[in-house]
Design a protein that fits this description.
Blueprint: H1 39-42, E1 53-55, E2 59-61, E3 66-68, E4 83-87, H2 97-100, E5 103-111, E6 114-119, H3 125-138
Antiparallel strand pairs: 1-4, 2-3, 4-5, 5-6
């Protein structure tokens, strides 16, 4: 399995994690081949569907007369690089609306060349950082 399963956001759901590692960092590597650990076979996961993330839609702010995302004070500078991601959920999965609207990753500007990144399970820090880095490549440099 090379993706986060959709079941990780369901109530009582979990993401597969290895129960043991084939080699300790303290041991010297041997020339013998170590069999690969098949994570998906060691953990029972009810759904094999990957978790798909979507951009949260901005809401119209009547006083400011513009489209805004609520970063709850964590992002302070308007930027084309600011974004929030939530799970893209199929209505057939019967996921509560509160869970569907949960922000899994948010990234935004807080100063000149200074950004903030907030993430939560099921993303790892590495995955969240990689997603945020990709926003620098796809959006215009001018603001």
């Amino acid at each position: 399995m090379h993706s986060i399963p959709f079941s990780s956001i369901q109530e009582g759901g979990s993401a597969p994690t290895p129960t043991s590692f084939p080699q300790s960092f303290d041991e010297r590597p041997s020339k013998a081949k170590v069999p690969a650990v098949n994570i998906s076979s060691s953990v029972s996961v009810p759904s094999r569907e990957p978790l798909v993330l979507k951009n949260k839609a901005p809401r119209w702010h009547e006083q400011l007369q513009c489209w805004c995302l609520n970063f709850k004070g964590r992002v302070t500078v308007a930027s084309v690089k600011n974004f929030q991601l939530a799970a893209a959920v199929d209505p057939s999965h019967n996921i509560p609306a509160a869970v569907q609207e949960t922000t899994i990753l948010q990234f935004g500007k807080i100063g000149k060349d200074i950004f903030t990144m907030d993430y939560c399970y099921p993303l790892s820090a590495f995955q969240a950082f990689a997603i945020c880095l990709s926003s620098f490549d796809t959006k215009p440099a001018c603001e």
